Amino acid sequence: LHTRSVLLPTSRTRLAMATLPPRSGAFSEGYNFAYAWDKKVPLTGQQNAAISALSHTLADRPFPAHLQDADNDSAFEEAGAVDAALVNTHQFYKWFVQLESAMKSEIDEKYRLYESTLQEHVNTCDGILRQVDDTLNLFEQVQSLHSRAAIRIQTLHDACDQLVD
């Protein structure tokens, strides 16, 4: 999309090239102020001629060679931008939907990567928890075997004491 440059109609602001903003209260107020200022302090004919000459010179001035659009085009090509001109609003909306989709998929990819990293950590923690549970079960089995062995040893000691007496 291209912006439209306009010369503001007041003589003080003829050098100002601006993109026409939407008509709002602030815009109208600023425009009216500039118009009133020009009415209070008019420019001389020589000043008006100089402003007019500068306006025409600036309007016809070529784009500087060291700031060609090639640099911008290569950056857009690297970013995957489409090189087609947008002719109507349908094409603009189609392009905008594609742009939003690309941005969304880029953001989604970051979150998918983060989710997979978190899932790996959860799986690692689950594995450690299973090992701890297995170790506790083995410890309980060893403790149970130890208490049975202690009971048998005590029984054997008691039987030996009875035989000795």
UniProtKB/TrEMBL annotation:
Give Gene Ontology CC terms: cis-Golgi network; Golgi transport complex; membrane
Biological classification of the source: Eukaryota, Viridiplantae, Streptophyta, Embryophyta, Tracheophyta
Q: Which GO terms describe its biological process?
A: Golgi organization; intra-Golgi vesicle-mediated transport; intracellular protein transport
Native organism is Aegilops tauschii subsp. strangulata
- What is the name of this protein? Uncharacterized protein
